[in-house]
Amino acid sequence: xxxxxxxxxxxxxxxxxxxxxxxxxxxxxxxxxxxxxxxxxxxxxxxxxxxxxxxxxxxxxxxxxxxxxxxxxxxxxxxxxxxxxxxxxxxxxxxxxxxxxxxxxxxxxxxxxxxxxxxxxxxxxxxxxxxxxxxxxxxxxxxxxxxxxxxxxxxxxxxxxx
Amino acid sequence: xxxxxxxxxxxxxxxxxxxxxxxxxxxxxxxxxxxxxxxxxxxxxxxxxxxxxxxxxxxxxxxxxxxxxxxxxxxxxxxxxxxxxxxxxxxxxxxxxxx
Lengths: 162, 99
Description:
Helix content of chain A: 55-70%
Oligomer: heterodimer
CATH architecture of chain B: 2-Layer Sandwich
Strand order of the largest sheet of chain A: 1-2-3
CATH class of chain B: Alpha Beta
Mean pLDDT of chain A: 86
Distance between the termini of chain A: 27 Å
Order of helices and strands of chain B: HEHHEHE
């Protein structure tokens, strides 16, 4: 993954990706998206929140989650399939970061349950020892983390300039 | 001139605080979200400086939870909702000292 252009005026960032590596991961993201249509990626543990409020929040959070993941998937458009380039501006950065978090949480739940919290947190996963589908799921998990890191660095740069 | 509003002789000393006490917003650990992401979310939502955000992130990471805000219930609920929008696991709980 290589950041190629950062245009000052629009705060736009463009990233060139390996088509052969990333394209198969999109199928994983789409399948996770399908499984999240009426389900929250993170458990709705809210403590002492009223049941009525919890239901309202649940619906609003589902709507926001779906909207964010749609923005993430929309980045992989014709330009990406033509030359591996994805682009986003500051307005898109936050929804895309949230979408990455949602998909990563769901990937853990769906495909990576066999990995302990400690192993996952430390990143001590032996990729070659993973079977499919966890192997591709873990590649997707790492790819989305890298994308998040890139956006956070980009936002830090913008904040530093202001 | 100088007319005083007619006031009830009955005092109403109960404030929101006295009626409902203080509530804590607590963020719980998860093994998935990146440390840098959690720091960024804390800075964005609570306006923490980098050092404060990192302190709370490390508490979550090492102790499993961190109290990131304490105050009135309505605002605690709003913060909790926003944290869930960012896919962090957050709960509200009564601040024992005020209940």
